[in-house]
Amino acid sequence: MSSESVFDPDPDLAWAAFERRDRTLDGRFVGAVKTTGIYCRPSCPARHPRRENVSFFPDGAAARAAGFRSCLRCLPDEVSREAEALDKAYRLIAAAEEPLKLEALAAAVGYSPHHFHRLFKRATGVTPAAYSRGKRAKDMEQALTGNGRVTDAIYEAGYSGTARFYADAKERLGMTPSAWRDGGRGETIRWAMAKTYLGPMLVAATGKGICRLSFDEGEEALRERFPNADIAQGNGELRDLVGRVVDAVATPERPHDLPLDVKGTAFQEAVWRELARVPAGESLSYSALAARAGKPGAARAAGTACGANQVAVLIPCHRARRGDGSPGGYAYGLERKAELLRRENKELF
């Protein structure tokens, strides 16, 4: 395990992770049991010992140096092998000119296809194929920020041809490639304002779904984000959609099925999925979000993913906080963030 992935565990937080058998923190530290002389990963399925009999170490090597031996049930040292396999898989996917077959990718890192598929999805929140598509789509977005031709950008991003790209783009891009490259040129975005208990709210949508939900913004800010799009007020066309959005903002504790036209990197999308899994009224630290999204130690990147969220409340980035328990940042003010959490927590009503 690289030294960058090792940290000195806080005993209380580490014990809480063991109590809930938090698989996302496997490989970040181990717990050693004085009465048995063994050390385990946080997700070990064995019966929990008494709290006073457990000590925590940053890794297996430190536990072994203190005289403990590896658990034969959860195999904590196997985490290092898993991390190495995942790192190699990420590199292989990034370097591949064509999408790699699951069988070939698993063989390259030394696992069976079924085992590797489960391992990869547990670490990233997505399948290897979805991760590969997300990586290529992100490369495509970066290539489209230049002034070259769309066709050149498609090949530069690693697609074998335009047909393969457009098959992927149908799922990932609400706008066409050229519109993405050129500030929304050729795309129609309709917008409307609505009153909410959080203040005036902007709702903007493409034909695919909501691409922007924000507060303290209006048409001018939307035009800055999409300077070349055909932006039009759409109160009539958006009436039903805006009504559903207002309802969702009024009851943020309830799941919604609103259509969204948003996208991000594979990691950002994994963070957004984990945010949606945080119980309403509760919050999760940026470091915990990063771990659950498959990148332990990437707390700052998790914070950036929250900041990249284009649809406030619908992707609940208000449920993210700093590791010390403080609220961290929020694009629309900490008062709104606190109000959303209060509204989600039914015990306060």
What does this structure look like?
There is one protein chain. With 349 residues, the chain is of the alpha/beta class. The chain has four domains: 3-76, 3-Layer(aba) Sandwich (DNA Methylphosphotriester Repair Domain); 77-182, Orthogonal Bundle (Arc Repressor Mutant, subunit A), CATH 1.10.10.60; 188-244, 2-Layer Sandwich (Double Stranded RNA Binding Domain); 266-348, Arc Repressor Mutant, subunit A. It is 43% helix and 12% strand. The protein is built from 15 helices and ten strands. It has helices at 11-19, 60-65, 78-95, 102-109, 113-124, 128-143, 150-156, 162-172, 177-181, 219-225, 239-250, 266-277, 286-292, 299-307, 334-344, and strands spanning 30-33, 38-40, 54-57, 69-70, 188-196, 199-205, 210-215, 230-233, 284-285, 320-321. The strands form three sheets. The protein has a four-stranded mixed β-sheet. A four-stranded mixed β-sheet has the order 7-6-5-8. The longest helix is centred in the N-terminal third of the chain and has 18 residues, at 78-95. The N and C termini lie far apart (47 Å). Mean pLDDT is 80; it is low at 1-7.
List keywords for this structure.
Double Stranded RNA Binding Domain; 15 helices; Arc Repressor Mutant, subunit A; 43% helix; 4-stranded mixed beta sheet; alpha/beta; DNA Methylphosphotriester Repair Domain; 10 strands
| Number of helices, where a helix is a run of at least 4 consecutive DSSP H or I residues | 15
Major pleated sheet: 4 strands, mixed
Structural class label: alpha/beta
Q: What's the mean pLDDT score?
A: 80
Cα Rg: 23 Å
Number of self-contained structural domains: 4
Inertia-based shape: globular
